Amino acid sequence: MYMMKNHYSRAAILNWQQWRLKSYCPHKNWEVLKSRFENTLIFIETLRKEVEKIIPVDILVRRKFGAPLELSYHKLNGYLGQHKRFIEKRIEYCKKNPSYFFSYIKLLEIKIWLKLRFGSCSLSVITLVDDYMNLHRLSIPFSHNNKYQIYKHHPHFNENYFKSIETLEKAYWLGFIFADGTIKNSRVCLYLSASAKYIKSNYNHLIRFCVALGLNPEYIDIIHRLEKGLKIQYRHFTLIQFSSEEMANDLCSLGFKGSRSKATEWPSIKFGNKLLDLAFLLGFYDGEADVGRTRINSANKDLLLIIKNKFNIPYMVLPGTKAYKLSLSGQLVNLMQIIFPKSLELKRHKFRLRNIEVIFNNILSKELLNDLLKVISKNKIADIFGVEVNRISQLIKKWGIEDILVDTRNQKIA
Question: What is the pTM of this model?
Fold first, then answer.
């Protein structure tokens, strides 16, 4: 059978998304149109009769003795380029579910087959299909294939969002998933736990996540779970979950095995820019840090050691009662929050500067300073690290870095 593989491409999904958003003014009387296509069962019968008009009479058959000649479903399936029980199966689906609709890619396939079979004679039938599509455009799914069911609930979902990490926003959300995400059987879940007073902040942050990836915020869940132990208490969760084999594979290829998995490592790709490293670490911090603290907590000791070495953090990874701990320093957290100002609101805090000389000499590397100067001024950098601006000027000269004058009224970091 002829398979339209191109209709399963990302371009086809984007076309479907754009098509759904277009306004439609029917060329016929709206009420007449609604009566012709009130549901898919009526559409199937109307389609059969319309094809019946453009085929030779000798192809028509009688269903029973004395009945009028008509086009059989068997022949109709062939003209539409479908398997022999295609229409019969759709009729069964409609009887079980009156709100059943043909998928977008199947209707496109039917239109192509009609054009191939009948040429210019197919115009009236193709117009019929177009009217059905336009009348029910908000209800027609992209595909009935389970792989594409996510687009029924999240029609604007960008499945390739993490295919490449080239922006601060992508790096931030990747870090957040590494901290609070899970993957199981291609099902991606971002799962935030907090006390009752932080539910609203977490909910608003998940809305930002949904907007970034094109997910439908209506599918954010808030769960209140009663836990009975030595102390009876409620635990509160805010989460969004969706199935996407492609995104799950992209996340796995980046090194993500689940926030609770000790196999999860720092992303396996090189970002090529220290600012992206900072944005990723900020996302991880927002998922793993306590409110008002500079330390991050994780059961994954190896990942914390990677972070310590990557940013040359002078503090030790220490064991805790339930997880390991690593203090990032007030300077580093303040810097991350300036680089990406759209982080989790309840965690945003201007921390006091401690161990100024140690942090300055360890964390501010040549590569980091070079990338920072592209988005913020050396005066701001000096303020973040709590040193005189001439210390920054000395490093610029020592390392041979271009002294870029940043216009703070139009910074690129937003």
Answer: 0.75
